[in-house]
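Q: Sequence in, structure out?
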Amino acid sequence: MTRVTIVDIGESLQAAIAKAFKDTIEARRLIKSSGEVYIKPNGIDFQPYAFTDPRVLEFLINHLKEEGAEEIYLMENSTQANMTRIVYEFTGYKDVCNRTGANPLYLDEMDTKEVTLDNFEDPIEFPTVVVEKLIEESEDHTYISVPKLKTHSMTTVTLGVKNQMGFPRHKDRGYHHNYNLHRRLADFYRLVQPDYTLIDGTHVVFNGHYPLQTFVSESIEELGILVAGRDTLATDVVASRILGYDLEEVKHLKLVYEDGLGEGKLDEIEVIGNLERFNKKYPCDILDQMPEDVRIIRGREKLCAEGCDLNVRMLLQLLYYDYDGKGGFSIVMGKGFDKKELESIDEQVLIAGDCAIKETQQFLENKLGRENVFVSPTCNRLAATTTALCKLMGVSPLDMVPSKRKALKALLLAKLRGSRALIPDIL
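A: Exactly. Output:
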């Protein structure tokens, strides 16, 4: 029976991490012939509480070194519209690497190789280091996933399985970021699987995965736990139960279970620690807070929550409430529009997603003028959406970073090192 542990952090995070391994498998037994360990946090962005706590990473790295790891790599390819080097600067990950001697791997700056997913025809690009070390030579290299305990408006939860979403290049993430997202996540997991998953539950994040600072008290709760195990699916199932969800409610986890890639039945998992004390259901939907002066016109035939719908609305919320963005424009998304609704648009407009672009762009450009129509292609081209909304709302992307000087320095260095991250226009 696969084993998953729930550890209370209490007074010592260091002791809690040691206990997590003691309850499941000693860390030294995870270290393989190369002596190399690759750690993948959830480092999507530097927004407070959106990322894996750097203290968890630091104590984990030190524990692995004590247990015999020779080289440790902290790797990430942050979310679209961001650069990993910038995220490391403002999350404290760069400092963790400096203090511990771990090697930062900015995956957006690295060479890539094509891989093919089981259920999708078009190849995508993964970092070469991931393909060679964690797929082709996985028997020699250790991979540890360290996600944050978070809900997610598009996938219900974002934990160990979804953490692999950080591997595709930005250009490949926008495609199939729609109703196919759940299948795609399961296919990523089939391709590359962690040897161990340690979930950071210092805080639980809910109302989506990206807490707005204006409403942060409504979207986080201090839990002070770690959830850990060798079987990532089983670990995710236990963590999902802590969040209030079972396997049937989390589509990508159900698919992974149906694919035979782990244990998904809670009664077949040996849970160490008291799971029954967690009796809340943390909401995964984003807060019902939208600017009243932004009109959203939705297609009646198709509108994917996993694609243009929630990605655009989340960013709209962020810019409006956290960065004082202005409204006074329209957004068109989905497929199958009432022509009268389109004819009623008399202001600047963002067309989000390929479906809406194909159906409405020419009409709206003819009506409003090309200079008043902004487009964001694929199902989720977050950099283009950010560029458009920043211009429409009067927000500079540089207003969104804690230090413009540090951000620009990191951006320049990332560009010099070959970063292919998709970022918004900053001028």
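The chain has two domains: 2-272, 294-401.
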